[in-house]
Amino acid sequence: MTIDEIRDNFSLLDDWDDRYRYVIELGRTLAPMPEAEHSAANKVQGCASQVWLSKQIDRSGGEPLLKYLGDSDAHIVRGLVAILLTLYSGRTPREVLATDALAVFDEFGFREHLTPQRSNGLRAMVERIRSDARETLAAAS
């Protein structure tokens, strides 16, 4: 699924209960994360729920690609992770740094509909991925 498909589906849903259900459904589409990846190193700090992001760097092509698995113990957060991975996983570090995920979430209306703790957690997830991108770029230079 692409971010444009998610955007189109979101635009069809006027009611926030329906939008929340859709986000939860997106969370169910996440690839399973092996239990070993639910480690302290992969845990995202700053989230009210437990969130894990596991990074792999694919160097088989020209520029490295950041690929992620993600998981959470909260259904709605799993959905937010699914949207983030749609935006960022499989992208180059430059593409990651050029993508403003928070603007996309604002466009969907999440700023008004997430608790402050969830918003902080979302920012922590975005910053973790952006930090990975900066580190990968620095290592490549």
Automatic annotation (TrEMBL):
Residues 8-131 form the Fe-S metabolism associated domain. Coiled coil: none annotated. It comes from the Bacteria. Pfam families: SufE. Belongs to the SufE family. This is SufE family protein.
